[in-house]
């Protein structure tokens, strides 16, 4: 039979070894000797051999309050532990960015569809969006047809009303806000990024 | 959902104006996370002795043990958010204490006296209350040599032996502190005792 492993010898000394394995030690001088060595070292290292003896000297009674005061002072100079929601700030920022992107692309798609002949009537929810875009005299996407084409292609599968039916909340006010926040340069940059991503995905 | 006030009565002094008695460690952690310094004070008060003793057993002197204990609690405060409550707070604090202590200590120690002398002294041991002054000195010298030998053990074996022999923690909790399996902890304990025997021979 195999000799006891180091882990089993500890179990043997502590009286938790399985009976069948413990029986091996009764017949095996090598395992008995290993267990005896462990018992001996435990006796030597044991701090409780004498009642009241402690290997760690008890500090002055004043020490504990002084220690607490030192910790308190150090902690008071630390920033408070971050709240749960603060740990999600990066994720919130990323989600917010994606929402702005989707909203802007969807809005531009609706505008493009409204401008093209033979396109079905624009959903009611997009009317206000289009009005917002019309109010943006500074938006000159028409001067850059390539960007417009990219944005339209990226948003080809986006249907705001379908998204709403699926339970996603897309508020007209939010769309207005997003559109208002994007200037011409930002829209052009958005188109450039999308174009770049689409090219990369096509490789 | 009713609002719960994070208040309690400290063993030694009232903290804030709260009235929740005997808060659990989880209660205190939750309150400290919400910014209650009083709750963190209570955590320190509750665990400082064991943390100090653990640090002392690694470094062997009061000054370093005191500094390390302070460091342990400051690190714990900074990392409070990462404490998920999967393990006991004491296990988490011990884990921090072991890490900062092992980072602090070196391996240079005086050579311990031979094992034979230790055994002879052990056989003749008498109760502390009755022993002579010279016996007490000898006993302390022997204890110092054992501590010095323990300090020469590999780090994980040293930590395992200290936690098991001096803090009497179960193998399962030691495994949680050291991030090992229970089997590995027992094997480390065995090797620690074996190496200690060789160091004292």
Report on the structure:
The complex is a heterodimer of chains A (203) and B (201). By secondary structure, chain A is mainly alpha-helical. Chain A folds into two domains: 6-45, no CATH class; 88-202, no CATH class. Chain A has ten helices and no strands. Chain A has helices at residues 6-14, 19-27, 29-45, 61-76, 89-115, 124-134, 145-154, 160-165, 172-181, 184-202. In chain A, helix 1 crosses helix 3. Chain A is elongated. In chain A, 22% of the residues are buried. The model of chain A is unreliable at 124-134 (pLDDT under 50). Chain B is an all-alpha fold. Chain B has two domains: 7-106, Rna Polymerase Sigma Factor, Chain: A, CATH 1.10.1740.10; 108-201, Orthogonal Bundle (Arc Repressor Mutant, subunit A). In chain B, 66% of the residues lie in helices and 2% in strands. Chain B has nine helices and two strands; from the N terminus they run E-E-H-H-H-H-H-H-H-H-H. Chain B has a two-stranded antiparallel sheet. The termini of chain B are far apart. Residues 1-19 and 107-113 of chain B have low confidence and may be disordered. Classes of the chains: A mainly alpha (203), B mainly alpha (201). At the A-B interface, helix 1, helix 3 and helix 4 of A face helix 2, helix 3, helix 5, helix 6 and helix 7 of B.
């Amino acid at each position: 039979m195999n000799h006891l492993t180091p882990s089993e010898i500890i179990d043997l000394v502590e009286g938790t070894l399985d009976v069948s394995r413990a029986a091996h030690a009764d017949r095996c001088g090598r395992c008995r000797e290993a267990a005896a060595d462990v018992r001996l070292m435990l006796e030597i290292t044991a701090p409780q051999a004498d009642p009241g003896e402690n290997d760690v000297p008890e500090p002055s009674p004043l020490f504990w309050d002084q220690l607490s005061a030192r910790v308190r002072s150090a902690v008071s100079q630390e920033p408070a532990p971050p709240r749960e929601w603060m740990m999600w700030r990066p994720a919130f920022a990323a989600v917010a960015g994606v929402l702005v992107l989707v909203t802007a692309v969807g809005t531009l798609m609706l505008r493009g569809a409204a401008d093209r002949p033979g396109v079905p009537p624009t959903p009611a929810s997009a009317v206000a969006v289009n009005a917002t875009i019309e109010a943006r005299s500074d938006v000159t996407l028409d001067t850059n047809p390539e960007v417009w084409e990219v944005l339209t292609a990226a948003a080809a599968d986006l249907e705001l009303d379908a998204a709403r039916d699926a339970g996603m909340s897309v508020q007209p006010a939010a769309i207005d806000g997003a559109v208002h926040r994007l200037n011409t340069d930002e829209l052009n940059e958005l188109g450039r990024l999308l174009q770049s991503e689409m090219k990369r995905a096509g490789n | 959902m009713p609002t719960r006030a994070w208040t309690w009565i400290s063993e030694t002094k009232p903290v804030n104006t709260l009235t929740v008695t005997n808060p659990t460690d989880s209660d205190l952690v939750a309150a400290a996370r919400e910014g209650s310094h009083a709750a963190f004070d209570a955590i320190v008060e509750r665990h400082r002795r064991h943390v100090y003793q653990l640090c002392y057993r690694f470094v062997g002197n009061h000054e370093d043990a005191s500094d390390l204990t302070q460091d342990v609690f400051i690190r714990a405060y900074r990392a409070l958010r990462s404490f998920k409550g999967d393990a006991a707070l004491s296990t988490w604090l011990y884990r921090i204490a072991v890490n900062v202590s092992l980072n602090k200590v070196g391996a240079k120690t005086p050579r311990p006296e031979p094992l034979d002398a230790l055994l002879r002294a052990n056989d003749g041991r008498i109760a502390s209350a009755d022993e002579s002054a010279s016996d007490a000195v000898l006993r302390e010298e022997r204890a110092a040599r054992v501590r010095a030998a323990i300090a020469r053990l590999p780090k994980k074996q040293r930590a395992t032996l200290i936690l098991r022999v001096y803090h009497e923690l179960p193998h399962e909790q030691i495994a949680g502190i050291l991030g090992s399996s229970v089997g590995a902890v027992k094997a480390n304990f065995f090797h620690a005792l074996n190496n200690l025997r060789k160091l004292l021979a």
